[in-house]
Design a protein that fits this description.
The complex is a heterodimer of chains A (271) and B (357). With 271 residues, chain A is α+β, with helices and mostly antiparallel strands. Helix content of chain A is 23%, strand content 35%. Chain A folds into two domains: 2-32 and 241-270, no CATH class; 36-228, Immunoglobulin-like. Chain A has helices at 2-7, 15-38, 230-238, 244-266, and strands spanning 40-41, 51-54, 78-80, 87-92, 96-104, 108-116, 120-129, 132-140, 142-143, 146-148, 160-168, 171-179, 192-200, 210-212, 216-223. Chain B has 357 residues and is mainly α. In chain B, strands 1-2 form a two-stranded antiparallel sheet. Chain B has a two-stranded antiparallel ribbon with strand order 3-4. The chains are: A alpha+beta (271), B mainly alpha (357).
Amino acid sequence: MVEHLRRRGLVGGTHSSRLGVALVMTAMMSFLPAYNVAASVDEGLFDGVQVVMAPYSANPAIHQDGTIVAGEYDQNGTYKTSDTQLTVMLMHDNASLYVAISGPAWGWLALGISSNMTVGMGFVVVGAVGGTYVTEERFVSEVSGTVVFPTVQPSGEKTIEKFGWMQHGADVVAELKLSLESPLWSLSTGQVYATVIASNSTVGYSLPSIVSGGQIHYLGGYLLRSQDNPETIKTLFSGEISSVPGYVALALIAIGTVAILYEYVFRRGRR
Amino acid sequence: MTAQSPWDRVRKGRFWHYIDERLGLDQLDYTVPEHGNTLPYMIGGITVFGFVILIVTGLLLTLFYDPSPERANASVLAIQHDVTLGWLVRGLHYWAAQAVIISVVLHMVRVFVTASYKKPRELNWIFGIVLLAITLNFYFSGTVLKWDQESFQGVDEIKTVSGYLGPFGLPVSQNLAPTVPILDRMYALHVAILPIIIGIFLLAHLLYVHYFNISPLPWRKKNSEEPEEPKEPFTKHLIGITQYGIVLLVILAILSFVFPAPLEPAPITGFHDATKPPWPLLPLTAVDDLIGLWWIIPGTAIPFLFLLAVPFIDRGEERDPRKRKIIVITFMVGMAMLLVLMYLGILHKVAGSVVGG
């Protein structure tokens, strides 16, 4: 690289030109760590969170048509938001993440997943704008209680592969097919990702620019592996661990110790 | 004329004579005090029987176990469900490990209470404490091998603790061999390194039990005028241990059938504190909860240093526990603290956290 710069006359000239190049390079490099340090997802927000699962299906019979038919989604991948009564359903096939959102006509819902918490979180936003439902992709470099959506969409390949929605009386159903590999994230099975579901029930005229407080639900997101038993994984994430072996061992050691003490301290020689 | 037992008839047979002449098995026929054949004095022997079960079942498990991180969990699952009687072999191995931990602790309590560590058995007590430490390491490395969420979390904690220990933590840190999975190292530890070390110490421990014979009852004074305690052949002691051992084996087989050895799914990354450690490590969980992970280092080292120092602290000739109040009460307070910490560990609420990514 130095040889290349010398041939172009950028180094090897006067002291002042060399010093100039050094200063410019130093200034450029100083931005690199600054970018990484500023962009982050606060891990503390994800302590003791509920984990939502996306069950695996090799060939899911899912169509992004805004209508959910019986058996299209697995019940193990269902999450209900407490405030807006929206139901979010998740599935995946190792290439795409299938998302369905249903409930009484809602304002917007944002699904955020971070595949690298030191960099930030990718968001897919679905919301009502001017009587129709639209989608947007946003990458948020800092998640710390408040999410500020930048106005610029990430460039390159899009995350949303397909989108469809339908009004069913008072309810609206939206369905998305999202790529697991995109500028927003890089997702694989066997790992829990920091996940955010934020929503608002008020039907507005634009997608949100800032989200905070009770609108945000901090979760863990997990794509089930093909060999995973959803019930076992659900038990694992719920922290339901049997304490029986511990109690039995505790009792046996305690009883044994007391019996030895009884034999050699209290019953000493009375045989 | 007294009736001969089947055992006596075997010993007078030609086959026994042939074997005895070549292996010197009559050396086992030395006498031990009568109290040596009571249950408290046989717990150590029952522990050895448990180790024999562990060796036999462990050797069988190595035939089907794959120690690579990608396939370890699946191979244990296959042992449990696909290999003929694999569930029984793994179940016996798992339950025997639990039994050995309990029996080794009770053996230590008995030796302590009866002051069997006193002169000239001080070094044999130290061998015993080393054996206790090796047994706990055996247990931990064994739980890691199934490579499920609990194992993964255990290794994660060990990596953190090895960082606290600096250069002393290198043998268990990833830095020792960055490209070698820590699971492979745990496998080598469990099936090669620890068996050699435990073999040496167990041999020494048993040799000195034989050399010094079973320790006297704690209230029997040296040069006492009481009539000497009747003696019984050591082979009776061995038969008693075998009988208890067979009962233990039957109980372990029933436990294996009723409560199969646990196995969680293959590790899930990015999720911390998703599960609890196995029960012998629960006191450490409580210490971590109460005062922080770093404190498990002194929390482990101090009790072991105390145990190693016991024969040098309590050097008097008195063996009666009622006349060794300070050391016995100190020991019992320590035991009570251990049990309370274990109880707190049981109460510990698991609440996973998303990390990294």
